[in-house]
Write a structure and sequence with these properties.
Keywords: Signal. The chain is mostly beta strands. Helices cover 6% and strands 48% of the residues. It is built from two helices and 14 strands. It has helices spanning 27-30, 153-165, and strands at residues 36-47, 55-67, 71-83, 88-100, 105-114, 117-129, 132-139, 143-147, 170-175, 186-192, 217-224, 236-242, 248-254, 258-269.
């Protein structure tokens, strides 16, 4: 349900050669990302009759750690209790990814549970190549895939931050994050608003700790199937407030038939060991 490119964002542009103006991920840019653990409280904002959802709430824990030299690890857990009116079930998605920016490698593993029973597992590895991205998928079925040039989640986050700094308010991207069945990339459009400063009325701003009064960008990312028509609706849309260090808060996750909000409940900064690239 939740895309790892939030993270990913929470939560996630195409390579510099594939889309004009997309900045390449670099060691200097990556050092600005902060290792952290963020906890978000989730609530149902809206649901159509077609969704079959009468009520929904939950919690998401997102942990981001690593460095340009060492590689970046993302762990998140997305748990929701869903009331359909006739029954209540608990959905639990657990995802771990590892991204090596230096070597253009990305691994992913997602387990999805309903009422503590495993429904689905998706895992594999992807590698940047001159002609695109090679995916070695292990689950749900073992196979090799060749996809178009794509960014991986941390690369995409760095691109969003760099475009925000450069004042570029709109850009398109192709992203592979290993979500769904791990067999396709999605085309994204990103809209970045003007940088703002938190105001007292914002419920979760105070939970950002040292960053509670730091400026942020409002960001919206829409995900489309690669072959979707120009007037097609996105399969998923996510809005959030993004700090320059990669921390996000005040999430809105729009799945079409229902919409969830995610408020930052707790933020913990993690220690990162100094290291030199080999």
């Amino acid at each position: 349900m939740f895309r790892s490119s939030l993270a990913a964002l929470l939560l996630a542009s195409v390579s510099a050669n594939a889309w004009a103006g997309a900045p390449a991920a670099s060691a200097a840019a990556a050092t600005g990302l902060i290792a952290h653990r963020a906890v978000y409280d989730l609530e149902l904002k809206d649901a159509s009759d077609r969704s079959g959802i009468a009520g929904m709430y939950g919690r998401m824990v997102y942990e981001f750690d690593g460095s340009y030299c060492q590689g970046f690890t993302t762990n998140f857990r997305f748990v929701t209790q869903i009331d359909t009116g006739d029954s209540v079930r608990v959905s639990d998605q657990q995802t771990t990814t590892f991204e090596n920016l230096k070597d253009g490698k990305f691994t992913f593993d997602t387990k999805s549970f309903t009422d503590e029973q495993l429904d689905k597992e998706v895992n594999g590895a992807a590698q940047d190549q001159p002609d695109g991205v090679k995916v070695d998928l292990k689950q749900p079925a073992s196979r090799e895939l060749q996809l178009a040039e794509s960014r991986f989640p941390t690369e995409h986050m760095l691109d969003v931050i760099q475009n925000a700094k450069d004042g570029k308010r709109f850009f398109e991207a192709r992203v592979f994050d290993g979500s769904d069945d791990g067999d396709k990339a999605l085309v994204t459009t990103t809209i970045v608003g003007k940088q703002q400063t938190p105001v007292a009325e914002e419920a979760d701003a105070g939970n950002a700790g040292a960053f509670s009064k730091t400026a942020f960008w409002p960001v919206t990312i829409a995900y489309f199937n690669e072959n979707a028509k120009s007037d097609s609706l996105p399969v998923y849309r996510m809005s959030f407030k993004l700090y320059e260090n990669g921390i996000t808060r005040d999430l809105t996750m729009d799945y079409g038939d229902f919409v969830l909000t995610g408020k930052l409940a707790k933020l913990e900064l993690l220690e990162r060991k100094a290291e030199a690239c080999q």
